């Protein structure tokens, strides 16, 4: 039965996505679908009482402890991180920051907001020139390149999971004559190294992770005695949820929730000029 329903579901998703990519879906339809997805997620996440809400939270926390550091690490690569960089250069701002930005006032441009957020990370982590820095899940190097350019005596190491991201960052270093950057392509859940850092950052990568105890245990070995870890993690203000919510098979719900992982990727990439993603994981 499940297989029978899965086939038309897959075909519908494929059709919708190819229409979206060919710009055949009017904005009004995309907005409607996005609202529908948000509505489903909110109805799923908000529980009828504080006790139920707390119980869901505790179950979630417990389930994370039973899981590996990360699961399905190849899927996001295919969905976003190995999509050609030329696409992201069209959709993102100058810094190619693939995470939330800080719009301090209505007149801020995307470039202003990217820079404001990058600056805020440095300020809040009390970064000093000359320190050793690690950025875990560095994407196309928004923070790595910002720090390496502004703090020329810092040695900046980045970890990303995509060869196209590494190639882009290294090209930028050549163009800007930066010699203080090193990039590793690795799955953080398996990566090991003998090194320690004054400042470790992770910007919107923790959303991809599951077992935070093991992840933080690993990161702690890379921190100097007085080192600091700065994490920017986006989440819902009340309830936690997995990117793809495992739930009892319910075709109507599955259609909408399952679709969100694919649609959200494309929608956020298509409409991300100045976006701030508060609800759905990306
Ligand atoms: C939302 S992006 C944020 C990128 C970057 N920090 C920024 O702010 O522009 C998440 C990043 O996490 C990285 N990532 C996701 N899963 C990972 C994994 N298992 N191992 C290493 N990096 C991972 C991806 O390479 C991706 O660039």
UniProtKB/TrEMBL annotation:
It comes from Linum tenue. GO terms for molecular function: methyltransferase activity. It comes from the Eukaryota. Pfam families: CMAS. Keywords: Methyltransferase, S-adenosyl-L-methionine, Transferase. InterPro entries: SAM-dependent_MTases_sf. One of its GO terms (biological process) is methylation. Belongs to the CFA/CMAS family. This is (S)-coclaurine N-methyltransferase.
């Amino acid at each position: 039965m499940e297989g029978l329903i899965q086939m038309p579901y897959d075909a519908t998703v494929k059709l919708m996505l190819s229409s979206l990519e060919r710009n055949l879906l009017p904005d009004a339809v995309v907005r409607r679908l996005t609202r529908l997805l948000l509505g489903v997620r909110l109805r799923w996440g908000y529980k009828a009482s504080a006790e139920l809400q707390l119980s869901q939270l505790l179950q979630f926390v417990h389930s994370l402890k039973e899981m590996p550091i990360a699961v399905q690490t190849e899927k996001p690569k295919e969905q976003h991180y190995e999509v050609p960089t030329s696409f992201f250069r069209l959709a993102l701002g100058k810094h190619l920051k693939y995470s939330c930005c800080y719009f301090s006032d209505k007149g801020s441009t995307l470039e202003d907001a990217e820079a404001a957020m990058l600056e805020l990370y440095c300020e809040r982590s009390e970064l000093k020139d000359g320190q050793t820095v690690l950025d875990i899940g560095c994407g196309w190097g928004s923070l790595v390149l910002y720090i390496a350019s502004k703090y020329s005596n810092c040695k900046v190491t980045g970890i990303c999971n995509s060869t196209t991201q590494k190639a882009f960052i290294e090209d930028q270093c050549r163009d800007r004559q930066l010699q203080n950057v090193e990039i590793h392509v690795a799955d953080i859940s398996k990566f090991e190294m003998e090194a320690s850092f004054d400042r470790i950052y992770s910007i919107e990568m923790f959303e991809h992770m599951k077992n935070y105890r093991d992840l933080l245990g690993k990161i702690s070995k890379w921190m100097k005695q007085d080192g600091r870890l700065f994490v920017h993690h986006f989440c819902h203000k009340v309830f936690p949820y997995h990117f793809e919510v495992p739930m009892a098979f319910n075709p109507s719900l599955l259609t909408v929730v399952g679709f969100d992982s694919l649609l959200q990727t494309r929608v956020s990439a298509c409409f991300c000029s100045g976006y701030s993603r508060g609800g759905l994981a990306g």
